[in-house]
Amino acid sequence: MKKFQAILAKIGILPLVVAVAALVVMFVAAATSPVHATSNGIWGAFVAWMTDAIVGVASWFNNSYGWGIVGFTLLVRFLILPLMIYQLGETQKMQNIQGQLKALQQKYTSRDQDTMLLLRQEQQALYKENGVNPFAAFIPIIVQLPVLLALYQAIFNSKLLKSGNFLWTQLGHLDPYFILPILAALFTFVSSWLAMKSNPDQNGITKAMPYIFPVVILVSALAVPSALALYWVVSNAFQMVQTLLLQNPFKIQAERDAVKQAQRDRQRQVNKVLRNAKRKR
Q1: Are 54 and 65 in contact (CB under 8 A)?
Q2: What is the mean pLDDT of the chain?
Q3: Is pLDDT of 26 > 70?
Q4: Contact, 131 vs 93, CB < 8 A?
Q5: How many other CB atoms are found less than 10 A from the CB of residue 66?
Q6: Residue 169 belongs to what H/E stretch?
Q7: For residues 49 and 128, what is the distance between their CA atoms, to the nearest angstrom?
Q8: Rounded to whole angstroms, how far apart are CA atoms 214 and 243?
């Protein structure tokens, strides 16, 4: 109970209310869908429910299944908003101890088993001391993975979604002009770059991430139906805006610069006092 209250305090009530509201809207959309998909088994029921939810949202937009996917994607993002806020908080704490982690790695340079065990133990102690969950970054990805898989199956199981048109694309086919894959990669790059920019201690891997993820998304989006590429475009655009609002790297850097400047000012004041004291002697 105390752990739940601590997590709730980190996330806040409003994101939870938004998540519950999004889930309610998704159930209403599925229940009011003009047609209902058939299902077999638990996974089939989940895919059918998602199909109904998309078709239900589409019915609110004059049966535009592209807008149905856009609306459904936004609902998914609002649904996982508490997890994203929790992840951002954990990421910020992880960034704050990067210097200490680097010091531990420099302390235990040997690669033998005993030394590596000591390194892991001290890392775990450091995580515990600072209340850091090193696996928090993977939670939103794990949650969204079933959604992506179910959306992929929903497109091929539903004739409506498979044959639906949106702007220049047919949802069940590849984007003929590659616009959606490029947009998905672009939004992925911007959101990844913004997230990494707030990290004060970047290594080779973290510096490469903003360039690796977009390539992965681009290659994947070029090989899947436009409906999935559309999902990535909307989801990553949402992620970009979310990062600017909740983890603005420019604001974080300005705050860090202000703290460093205040420390320099205090040190100068201390040095001035010490110099004056020496002169009086």
Answers
A1: yes
A2: 80
A3: yes
A4: yes
A5: 20
A6: strand 169-170
A7: 40
A8: 16
pLDDT at 81: 85
Place of tokens 């003929």: 176
For the record, the structure tokens of 247 come out as 């983890």
Residue 14: count other Cβ atoms within 10 Å of its Cβ.
11
User: What is the residue whose two structure tokens read 């994203």?
Assistant: 84
Distance CA 154, CA 48 (A): 7
pTM: 0.78
Helix pair 139-157, 41-59: axis angle to 10 deg? 80
pLDDT in tens, 81-127: 888 887 777 777 777 776 777 777 777 676 667 677 777 777 777 77
Amino acid at 198: S
Helix (H, G, I), strand (E, B) or coil at 177: coil
Neighbouring C-beta atoms of residue 6, cutoff 10 Å: 11
From 64, 115, 81, 23, select the one nearest 243 (Cα to Cα).
81
Residue 153: which of 144, 164, 162 has the closest Cα? 162
pLDDT tens profile 138-197 = 776 777 788 778 877 877 777 777 777 888 888 888 888 999 999 999 998 888 888 777
Six token digits for residue 16: 């939870």
Q: What is the dihedral of CA 15, 16, 17, 23, to 10 degrees?
A: 110
Amino acid at site 75: L
Amino acid at 265: D
Confidence (pLDDT) at 202: 57
> Can you list the alpha helix ranges (DSSP code H) found in the chain?
2-11, 13-31, 41-59, 65-79, 81-96, 98-107, 113-130, 139-157, 159-163, 179-197, 204-221, 226-246, 249-280
